[in-house]
Write a structure and sequence with these properties.
- This is Copper-binding protein.
- GO terms for molecular function: copper ion binding; electron transfer activity.
- Helices cover 27% and strands 29% of the residues.
- The protein is of the alpha+beta class.
- It has one domain: Cupredoxins -  blue copper proteins (Immunoglobulin-like, Sandwich).
- The strands form three sheets. A five-stranded mixed sheet has the order 1-10-5-2-3, with no helix packed on it.
- It is globular, with a radius of gyration of 17 Å.
- It binds copper (II) ion.
- The site of copper (II) ion has 7 residues, from strand 6.
C-alpha cells in the first residue's frame, strides 16, 4: 500500500467521524444525490470481464476504468489467507456496510479465514439475518472465487472495497475510474462493442 493511500484512508475516517458528530448522513451536497452506484447487470450484456484478486489486504488490480453505463463482469478470487469482500459502492455505502460486517465478526459469522455460513442464515430474532447476498458484493473464504456482474451508472466516486473490519482502513479498496475520452479506453470500448454487436 502506498503512503498516500494510507493518508487518504486516515483522512476519510476522520472526515466521516466529523460527519457523524454533526449528525449528517449521505454522500453529496445535492448534485448526484440519490444517484446509485449502478445496478445488477446481465452477464449477456457484459462486454468486458476483469479478474480481481484479493490478498491480505489489497486488490490486484488496485483500480479499474469503466465507461458510464457499462456492464462489466468481475471474476473475484480470494488469494489471501483471510475472509475478504469485493463490494461496489460509494464511500458512504462502504462505511455503513462496515458496521454490519463488524456485527458479523462479533457474532462469529466471520472468523479470520473462515465464514460460518449457517450462522449467516440464522434469524437474528428481529426478522433479520447476517446473510450476505447483495448483488453488488461477494464475501469469500480463502481459495474461493465468484462472479459479480454490475452495470455502472453515470455516478462517479465509486470504489470497490472490502468491509471486513480493519481491511478498508488498511487500504483494501480501489477506485472505479470513469473514462470515456481517453483514446486507450475508447479503443477498449470499441473492442468490447465488436465482441457484443447487439449494443
Ligand atoms: Cu479484506
Amino acid at each position: 500500500m502506498s503512503v498516500s493511500k494510507f493518508v487518504v484512508a486516515a483522512l476519510a475516517v476522520s472526515v466521516s467521524a466529523v460527519a457523524l458528530g454533526a449528525g449528517a448522513h449521505g454522500d453529496g451536497h445535492g448534485h448526484g444525490q440519490g444517484a446509485k452506484s449502478g445496478e445488477p447487470g446481465k452477464a449477456s450484456d457484459a462486454g468486458r470481464s476483469f479478474t480481481v484478486q484479493m490478498y491480505d489486504n489489497y486488490y490486484e488490480p488496485e483500480s479499474i476504468e469503466v465507461k458510464p453505463g457499462e456492464t462489466v463482469r468481475f471474476v473475484v478470487e480470494n488469494k489471501g489467507s483471510l475472509v475478504h469482500e469485493f463490494n461496489i459502492g460509494t464511500p458512504a455505502m462502504h462505511e455503513s456496510h462496515q458496521k454490519e460486517m463488524m456485527m458479523m465478526v462479533e457474532h462469529g459469522a466471520i472468523q479470520g479465514g473462515k465464514l460460518n455460513r449457517d450462522m449467516m442464515e440464522m434469524d437474528m430474532g428481529n426478522g433479520m439475518s447476517m446473510k450476505h447476498d447483495d448483488p453488488n458484493s461477494v464475501l469469500l473464504e480463502p481459495g474461493e472465487s465468484q462472479e459479480v456482474v454490475w452495470k455502472f451508472s453515470e455516478k462517479s466516486g465509486i470504489e470497490f472495497a472490502c468491509n471486513v473490519p480493519g481491511h478498508y482502513q488498511a487500504g483494501m479498496y480501489g477506485e472505479v475510474n470513469f473514462n470515456s475520452g481517453d483514446s486507450r479506453v475508447r479503443s477498449l470500448a470499441d473492442a468490447s462493442k465488436s465482441l457484443n454487436p447487439a449494443k
